[in-house]
Amino acid sequence: MLTSLFCCLIAAVSWTQFRGPNGQGQTGDAALPLTWSEQHNVAWKTALPGKGWSSPVLCDNQAWMTAASEDGRTLFALAVALDTGRLLHNVTVFCRSEPLFVHAKNSYASPTPVIEPGRVYVNFGAAGTACLDAITGAVLWRSQALQLEHAVGPGSSPILYRDLLILNCDGTNTQYVAALDKRTGQLAWRTPRSGKLNDNPDCRKAFSTCAIASVRGKDQLISLGADWLYGYDPLTGKEFWRCGFKGFSNVPIPILGDGLIYISTGFGRPHLWAIRPDTATVAWKYEKPAPAIPSPLKVGDAVYFVTESGVAICLDARTGAERWREVLRGAHAASPLHNRGRIYFFGENGRTKVVAAASPFQLMATNELDGMIMATPAVLDNALIVRTDKALYRIEQRSPVPDQRFIDQNTRNRGGGTPAR
After folding, report:
1. How far apart are CA 171 and CA 320, in angstroms?
2. Angle in degrees, CA 214, 381, 22, rounded to 5
């Protein structure tokens, strides 16, 4: 059976990288609040300097993010205390006299850091990668070994595997996946993409983040680039297999489960494909619009996703058959999260729609914060750590749970809770 060939490496929940354990958007046993607003269920709210779409990563009572000055000349790392919301560190990591160009929808600080006890690793694309002491904020090493032309700015986030910091590097001029020694920042291996690409350089770039999977009992690095999905040895970069499609500027991270890898084929006409890694073949294709930016979710026997224009869709994970389609309204860039049978969809307009992970479609609540949500939130115990373009929030249940099972989508949150500090 396919399930015996392939498993996703998710243990206890720890929000140390983009989208949590292995990038899959699963929150484990956390009991997240159903409703919130600026006045309700907010433990604290902290204004953030600079601009950045990177998601918060959490360890040892700290939330780390990256940000940049508006002109992109100063790139820095931020740390906020998770218990009080106090800004602990604002560390300048790189200064550039000639900033990279970024698209209006992107930022100079979009890649999410990765963290472990005592160390945080930040990446600003071709501008550089660095390691910081998480306690003191001191920069331990810097590297500019991973060079490429992003064309629209950086997007791929690094992951940790043993002593390696691994990153996709898919630009218009060069395409490869590489690993740095996390202790020193030195290049450990670099593997060029082997698949034939489009003749147009602009169609060769991609911005996805790697995932680690176990295929036939061995760890594989699952890496999505333009036109190809690859499986590599994460220790050496040796290519095991590849599977082709047509698409570029891929942002969503590959989703793993039930012997399949679920990918978005990227810009052009993004579709959702399910691929068998043991044979590098396609199990099924959903050839209607799929997300080019937010990552999908697999929950039980279903796959959930939202398009950039705000259309939420549920598919049968085994066949790709559509179970429901619903318009949420508003643009979406952040990736959804799953918690205890609920899907949290985060809109750019600051509104979060909470939907039952079930069929038919059931809207459970609509919540609103000031500012834009471009970064995917993180989870700490029973709290959501949400970054907007203005602030960082800790959102958790601070008043009795409403009696009604579902909150009408047109009802505004009122009162209760403790105001943000």
Report:
1. 31
2. 20
Which amino acid is present at 104? A
The DSSP string of 277-305 is TTTTEEEEEE-S---SSS--EEETTEEEE
Give residue 36's pLDDT: 98
pLDDT tens, position by position, 64-74? 999 999 999 99
Q: pLDDT (tens digit, 9 = 90+) per residue, 174-196? A: 999 999 999 999 999 999 999 99
> CA 309 to CA 323: how far, in whole Å?
19
Reference 307, options 287, 321, 293; nearest CA is 293
The C-alpha atoms of residue 34 and residue 210 are separated, in whole angstroms, by 30
Sheet containing strand 164-170, strands side by side = 159-161, 164-170, 175-181, 187-192
Q: What is the rounded CA–CA span in Å between residue 141 and residue 125?
A: 16
Q: For residue 215, what are the β-bridge partners? A: 6, 218
Q: Where is 3: in which H helix or E strand?
A: helix 2-5
At the fourth CATH level, the homologous superfamily of domain 22-395 is YVTN repeat-like/Quinoprotein amine dehydrogenase (2.130.10.10)
What is the Cβ-side half-sphere exposure of residue 231, based on CA atoms within 13 angstroms? 22
Question: Residue 306 corresponds to which tokens in the numbers above?
Answer: 């939202």
**Which among 343, 346, 340, 310 has a CA at the least distance from the CA of 325?**
310
pTM of the model: 0.92
Q: Are residues 150 and 126 in contact, defined by beta-carbon separation less than 8 angstroms?
A: yes
Integer angstrom CA distances of residue 236 from 165, 177, 185: 12, 11, 16
In the block, residue with structure tokens 């810009």: 267
Burial class from Cβ neighbours inside 10 Å (0-12, 13-18, 19+) for residue 170 reads: buried
Domain residue spans in the chain? 22-395
